[in-house]
Amino acid sequence: MKRFTDQVKKFVDSDVRRWASTHENIRHYPEELINTMKSLGLFGLNVPSEFGGFTATPKELLDIVRELARGFVPLTGMLGSHLKVCEYLVRFGTASQRENLLPKMANGSMIAAHAYTEKEGKSPDSLQTNLQLLSDKLMLQGNKILITNAANADLIAIVASYQTRNDEQDRKVGIALLSSKQDGLVISDDIPRLGMEGISLCNLNFECEITTEQMLGGIEFNGKKALEEVQIGTLINYSARAVGLAETIVKETIEYVESKKSVGHLLKDISAVQNKIASMKSRLKEEENILNELVSRFEEGTNLIKDAYKTKAFTTESTVDIARIGLALHGGVGYTKQHQIERHLREAIGLTLIGAPTDVALARAEIL
């Protein structure tokens, strides 16, 4: 597996970083990068070999996420959404769903998006997307917002609420598996935003007739179980992205101060600059240690949802701090697009918001 991770590292250094430095601000879909990711097998990282993938350990998977984040964080968002839907199918899908979908998902010919967020937030208890059970079909109605890679996905997993009996209070969570070309599904244009360009971010509107075969695990399966059981891995994935981004920021900032002068001295020889670089390195090391400890406990099967939320909050906020120091050391030129530090800061801020904003993550850690 180390050889595989080394291949990803080489891909990031030779292709991804170069692409991100020239395309990120023009909303250009990175098709050439995604094709290479397919050839590397990244879309089947958590799919069993019988379906054409290979089941990486949590540590191996997160090492790859960290490598990709070193180059271009939005790639990890697209891949993370896809792998989440893969995990749903591997763990909770029917035999037919696994056989029909997983081989195509593993080789990347079918890329999945995950549609959960609504205007009211992201909670199984407040879902407004409704699934109505009719005699021989299902009606799916609702809206989703800020869905990663929706414009380029082939399959979209939509989280919905539905009534199981006549009692309105007795509701389950269902996860509908829709083709992106499903009749009644409307995908918005790409949403303008501060950062995380390249991979689309769209709203969904839908009023679709679907079949019971399109429901993850069948109509009797309660999708709330799927949401809960993949959440720890999702939060750790966010932290791995933050650590990978922080690693790049530290490396690029060191390279910058080693090559630039101020008042006749190389920046690297100024004590105040040395102190800031030391602070960046120390913060990165702390992020790495906390993440590695969490992953080790996760592989042991420990239930650590509280710690996962806290780690997500810490690593993402720490990476913002590292980016701000890096920007300051670049000086005024860092505020321009001549260097990548301004993009890194935008991506770092974005990581504090996705999944669960920092205050929300810490609040959830306290009440769980």
UniProtKB/TrEMBL annotation:
Positions in coiled-coil regions: 270-297
PANTHER family in alphabetical order: ACYL-COA DEHYDROGENASE (PTHR43884), ISOVALERYL-COA DEHYDROGENASE, MITOCHONDRIAL-RELATED (PTHR43884:SF12)
Lineage of origin: Bacteria, Candidatus Campbelliibacteriota
Domain Acyl-CoA dehydrogenase/oxidase N-terminal residue range list: 3-108
Molecular function GO labels: acyl-CoA dehydrogenase activity; flavin adenine dinucleotide binding
Keyword Repressor appears in the UniProt entry: no
The protein's name in its UniProt record: Acyl-CoA dehydrogenase
Cofactors (names): FAD
Family statement drawn from the similarity comment of this UniProt entry: Belongs to the acyl-CoA dehydrogenase family.
Keyword Coiled coil applies: yes
